[in-house]
Amino acid sequence: MHSKANPSAVVLLSGGLDSATTLAIARSKGFSCYCLSLDYGQRHRAELAAAAKVAQSLGATEHRVMHIDLAAFGGSALTDTALAIPTTPAAGIPITYVPARNTIMLSLALAWSEVLGARDIFIGVNAVDYSGYPDCRPDYIAAFECVANLATKAGVEGKHLTLHAPLIQLSKADIIRQGLPLGVDYALTISCYQADAQGRACGVCDSCRLRKKGFADAACPDPTPYF
Amino acid sequence: MHSKANPSAVVLLSGGLDSATTLAIARSKGFSCYCLSLDYGQRHRAELAAAAKVAQSLGATEHRVMHIDLAAFGGSALTDTALAIPTTPAAGIPITYVPARNTIMLSLALAWSEVLGARDIFIGVNAVDYSGYPDCRPDYIAAFECVANLATKAGVEGKHLTLHAPLIQLSKADIIRQGLPLGVDYALTISCYQADAQGRACGVCDSCRLRKKGFADAACPDPTPYF
Question: How does DSSP classify residue A201?
Fold first, then answer.
């Protein structure tokens, strides 16, 4: 599964704009991509369907959905429908933050990468046009890469594992500008925190606002269907 | 849920000797303990039943089992029944190693601790009488604590989270010597990699050998039922 011509990488894929662009970047670097999505009890399943379409359209080698019920822990508007999704900017870390979600997803990516013999993991976190989540920052990514190399058999054997976060310092407009020439079909992606069953977006949540502004700033037509 | 009199802690509980002792230590320090076990597709479920009994006998506040199918990734004799459990010591990291298991369990403990407002997580890893897994070493624990503090809302707010690994430098005999006066009933615990449905141990796997030697070195009768 691992050859010099086409090394394998695990790519975290949510079905949103950022992770789709990240997959396109990983593909453009010649990786054979194993995409991992997490069904964690999020409000809507439309994003998992979007992830499957994105994986196929960008030539992923495999797309796998892991299930874990983070709604059992609660504490986030993305897993608890009793908490409303905010539609105006607020100070601090918003209620849409899912506790430890990126750490959980990266740990699963780490497990799969170890079984595949892959030495590269891609995650589409962004610390510019983002919702202020702590687990999207460069220091966090560097710390997890350190854990990944200490945690695993490969790390013990001196085979370095690299955690790629190619979007981390880009604006949303720059992300779109990178993805378009790499063939990302943004119409397939869903960023909305409360998309409906048809995958249509609300247009007013934090994630929709950042996405809308990104297309506007990139002077690119917004292909998002809104309800 | 979080008071100065009885701070909350999340304790990873496998049902084995080490994590039972760790829970007893956390209780002796005055923590209200929220025990987390992982049903990850391991060969036998007897250890999950043992975890529930241990949690109750040591006065845990809550015991929760999360489900995630790590067998889907494969790569370990603990999740793949096609791979035999070794019964003699071998060089290197053994096939019973489950890729990234401790990282996955710690990331889930991190999620729960954040929702509970707990600032302490306990894990019963040991780097003396152990199977040579990379994710049991002190450097790994220190690196994950760093991730935990960068990943979370509490970390951003300057509320330090401590990852406790109180057994990490103890011999198996010393672990038993610590646990007995704290009320651990080792007859409830299961360490065997291939226990049967009644919870009886094989006596020959790596984990059984370490456990047997621990009771012998501690000059304590071994309460383990063997098949």
Answer: B
